[in-house]
């Protein structure tokens, strides 16, 4: 059954008031809302209909109503107006993201921190599925007479370093040659493709000296590639829930923290979410977070969707504001990486 224009207008006013004040909403309150031309009696009757239709619930301790998950879904799908961020908000986001760091993981963790600070919610960021990450170059850096740093840099900007103890002597010239040979053989391959290719047999120059170095380095190279397959989850602002009225109940707060503490399970849930901006509300989520709403957005580097960032909090959420923030943040995340790349040239 479609809702009349009057019911939609009243429902949106209830949602707006409840999101703002976290208190059950009565008909008299709605009658005083800007542009509301209906009497309290008319509004009361419409609210009763909306409750019967499943859009409102009636707390036992209050005469007012609160929106249901069904109401929030209708709001997100049909009623929500895009909120344009202020110039100041845009400036804060863009400046905070444009860090002078070459470390992809730190940049993503920082983005999660920025998102948490701006929304006052618990935020998270999921690094890419690294099986599809493409190798850009490999570098071998001498540290001392017996130690070499193996560096693998991917096109997404991720850098993996590993210290390797060498059992054979080497020169900087040997390391440079091996770096170029490894880069030649692996550049453009995904991590998963690289794990199936062994280049030791491909050396055609200085085979005796180079194969000794390769035998030390290749097992560590392969192990580092395997480690790159791991997906990392960064979470920020968990303590923000204690400022949210819904979590004044310590039992509910503890359940929220326990649900997010299982990072393996949270990672699985986030990986399975669709790309783009996705909003799941209340019972649309798994049982352990069925009282929450989760908003995720894909972020990209060089135009490729490679990871997810988002927030989790109560269903009473400023959906229009949060989705606008996340859209602007993910757009700027790509720009931040571009600036870093240009600064390195």
Q: Please list the strands of the largest sheet in the order they lie side by side.
A: 7-3-10-9-8
Secondary structure category: alpha+beta
How far from one another are the termini?
60 Å
Profile the largest sheet.
5 strands, antiparallel
Spans of at least 5 consecutive residues whose pLDDT stays below 50 are 203-209
In the CATH scheme, the class of the largest domain would be: Alpha Beta
Q: What is the approximate shape?
A: elongated
| Chain-averaged pLDDT | 84
The CATH homology group name of the largest domain: GAF domain
Number of DSSP strand runs:
10
Give a written overview of the molecule.
There is one protein chain. This protein is of the alpha+beta class and 345 residues long. It has three domains: 5-79, Arc Repressor Mutant, subunit A; 87-129 and 231-336, Beta-Lactamase; 135-229, Heat-inducible transcription repressor hrca homolog, domain 3 (Enolase-like, domain 1, 2-Layer Sandwich), CATH 3.30.390.60. Helices cover 47% and strands 18% of the residues. The protein contains twelve helices and ten strands. It has helices spanning 5-21, 27-31, 40-52, 69-79, 87-97, 104-119, 172-186, 191-194, 207-228, 250-261, 263-271, 319-344, and strands spanning 56-57, 66-67, 122-126, 135-142, 147-154, 159-165, 233-236, 278-281, 292-301, 304-314. The strands form three sheets. A five-stranded antiparallel β-sheet has the order 7-3-10-9-8, sandwiched between helices. A three-stranded antiparallel β-sheet has the order 4-5-6. The longest helix is centred in the C-terminal third of the chain and has 26 residues, at 319-344. The chain is elongated, with a radius of gyration of 26 Å. The N and C termini lie far apart (60 Å).
């Amino acid at each position: 059954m479609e809702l009349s224009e009057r019911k939609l207008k009243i429902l949106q006013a209830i949602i707006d008031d409840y999101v703002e004040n976290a208190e059950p909403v009565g008909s008299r309150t709605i009658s005083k809302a800007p542009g509301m031309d209906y009497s309290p009696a008319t509004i009361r009757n419409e609210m009763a209909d909306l409750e019967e239709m499943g859009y409102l619930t009636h707390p036992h301790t209050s005469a007012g109503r609160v929106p249901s998950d069904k109401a929030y879904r209708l709001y997100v799908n049909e009623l929500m107006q895009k909120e344009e961020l202020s110039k100041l908000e845009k400036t804060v986001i863009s400046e905070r993201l444009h860090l002078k760091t070459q470390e992809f993981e730190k940049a993503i963790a920082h983005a999660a921190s920025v998102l948490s600070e701006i929304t006052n919610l618990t935020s998270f960021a999921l690094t890419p599925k690294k099986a599809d990450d493409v190798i850009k170059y490999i570098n071998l850096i001498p540290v001392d007479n017996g130690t070499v740093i193996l560096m693998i840099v991917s096109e997404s900007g991720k850098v993996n370093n590993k210290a390797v103890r060498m059992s054979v002597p080497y020169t900087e010239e040997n390391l440079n040659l091996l770096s170029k040979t490894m880069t030649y053989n692996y550049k453009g391959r995904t991590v998963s493709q690289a794990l199936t290719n062994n280049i030791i047999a491909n050396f055609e120059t200085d085979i005796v000296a180079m194969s000794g170095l390769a035998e030390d380095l290749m097992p560590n190279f392969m192990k580092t590639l395997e480690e790159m397959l791991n997906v990392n989850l960064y979470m920020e602002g968990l303590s923000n829930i204690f400022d949210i009225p819904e979590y004044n109940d310590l039992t509910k707060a503890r359940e929220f923290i326990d649900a997010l503490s299982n990072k393996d399970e949270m990672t699985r849930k986030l990986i399975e979410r669709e790309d783009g901006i996705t909003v799941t509300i209340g019972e649309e989520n798994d049982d352990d977070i069925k009282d929450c709403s989760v908003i995720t957005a894909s972020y990209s580097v060089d135009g490729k969707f490679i990871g997810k960032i988002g927030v989790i909090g109560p269903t009473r959420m400023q959906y229009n504001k949060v989705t606008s923030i996340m859209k602007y943040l993910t757009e700027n995340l790509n720009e931040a990486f571009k600036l870093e790349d240009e600064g390195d040239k």
